[in-house]
Amino acid sequence: MSLSSLKIRHILLASSILSVSTIATEVKAQATLDPVVVPAPQPREAVVPQRQRTTQGRRGTRRATRPVAPVAAVPAPAVERASLPTTVPTPVERIGSSVTVIGAAQIERDQRRTVPEVLQTVPGLVVVPSGGPGNQTSVFMRGTNSNHVKVLVDGISINDPATGLIDFGNLAATGDIERVEVLRGPQSGLYGSDALGGIIAITAKRGEGPPKAAVTLEGGSFGTFNQNVNVSGSHERFDYAFNVSHFRAESVPVTPLELLPPGQRRINDFYDNLTFSTKLGAQLTENFRINFVARYTDATLRFTGDGFDPVTFAAVPNAQQSRQQIEQFATRGEAVWQTFDGRLVNTLGANYFEQKSYSASPDGSSRSTIGDRTRIDWRSQYAFLPGQFLIAGADHEIERFSKPGFGAENSNTGGWLELQAQPFERAFLAANVRYDENEHFGGHTTWRVAPSYIIAGSETKLKGSVGTGFKAPTLSQLFEDFPDFFFFGNPNLKPEESLGYDIGFEQPLAGGQLRVGAVYFHNDITNLISTVFLPDFTSTLGNINRATTRGVEAFVSAQVTDRIKVRADWTYTDAIDEQTKQQLIRRPRNKGSVTVAYSPYDPLTLSATVLYIGEFADRDRTFFAPTINPGYTLLNVAANYQVNPYTKVFARVDNLTNEKYEPVTGFLGRGIGVYGGVRVTN
């Protein structure tokens, strides 16, 4: 089936506007303990039905004038809640696990246009792009592999079912994001496979109130043109949100000039990403609600790959570019109903996800794959006391993978139980256990316990967690052979496993205007899948490796005045390959960031972020020769000005000091970039 016919079928399937969950799997610089990844099952956060809905906009009701909302002074933080640690929205101060929540206001203030940019300053995370937008981008969480992080978009796992890879480089649309939650540490007790190192969940905005429309246009360096159109609102029992995002960067230099053969010119990378998304809901009765989301992405990348000199056999950048295209479709529907005065909430949901990938090299070789994942899940939440819950869930998932001449399938059934309780005053506890039965590797049990306690008087929060994680081998690892390279899959692979814990504190000072905190973490990872060379000169995969990661995350957050807010984070990570006793590549020991937000007067907000990445072990562009990357420091600044109630203008400068750096050795980071645009709303 052609890409165009696939697109038409998806548009018809989604009824109205499709949406997207972007990912283009480009593997030219993936850096993990082993370049093999995995998808996974995942329970869905319930959306509790609303007992009361706004009547604004009903027939016969006068439409209220929407109040003007100028850019205000930097506000003091409201009570922050997170859903990811327990599947129930919970005040962060009660959560024992290490979680970070990034809201839409912060994303807009700092003008972060892609998800990797949003994640750059999160403690415990290192974002490693191999070039500009759309290029392979890895995210290492607390030193674990990039493929040990499970990524959810509106509750749907977006790992490629064909290879298990998750490329953050294609998460290029942030205009419809309501919040991003990052939960660190093993989380398989709730979320099953792939949550060995942690979870990242992206939630799109939901329509609310009178109809609203917004158009954003932005342009700037490297041939960047970014457009976003959003329409949302609610009427009586129905709410809706539609979003279209187009991101293009036409000329991004990635290949260092010194690597080019004499006389060969550099061809800059080209990237184009078109994303559609929709989020719909209907409160059909007081106790029954249905939700629907859909996402569609079409992404194209043209980049310079590597070939080999016919005389010296050394790797050299190609004179012509390679091409990669990803089409991705994801959708979910769910029914939510409540009984016993809202104390019991049941959710029944179903997901479908499909990704079609195609890549072609200048020598005429190409690769195409199709992967899809079908999932059904059930979740039941019982509030036995206010704010205390017993939650149970079950799910069944089928994954399929095909390419010309090959196909494979796997299924997994899982069940889990979660307790969220307050054993005594100021003490909070979350505990869970999960059992998975996989068609190929059998049963697997995981768990997690996360207590916290707030000391009276000082309001010191003591927190900690301990749990297990696992990552199932992918269909490609199990069954895909490459006989031309004497490489064969291994159907006897076992899951990779982890045991991790953390312990820390948070301390409010100066009446809550100042907050400091730190946490120590430790992870032991076993059964890591690595390449095994056999006596008959063939190779395969085996569970032969181990790794240990440990470190410290610390922060200081200060509301200096009503108009000035400062946040500083520092992470120290020691990630060791236990087989070689060497530092794992692309995990810097030191990473830090400082962000200052300032509103000198109401229509204007300013922000500045300094990002520091210390030196780290790496390999050269061919991935053969070990090297040390010196790291880098970036300064990004942004300004937003509310011209009137309907118009905002904005500008930013990334890498203000024009630092020359390589986030991955052999691949340039972007130099100074200047961008500006306008946002118009009704």
TrEMBL record:
Main location (coarse class): membrane
A molecular function (GO) term: siderophore uptake transmembrane transporter activity
Residue ranges occupied by any TonB-dependent receptor-like beta-barrel domain in the UniProt entry: 224-656
A GO BP annotation: siderophore transmembrane transport
Compositionally biased tracts (Low complexity): 48-58
Database matches in PROSITE patterns: TONB_DEPENDENT_REC_3
Residue span of region Disordered: 48-69
Chain ranges of the TonB-dependent receptor plug domain: 93-199
Protein name, per record: Vitamin B12 transporter BtuB
Native source organism of the sequence: Variibacter gotjawalensis
Lineage, uppermost ranks: Bacteria, Pseudomonadati, Pseudomonadota, Alphaproteobacteria, Hyphomicrobiales
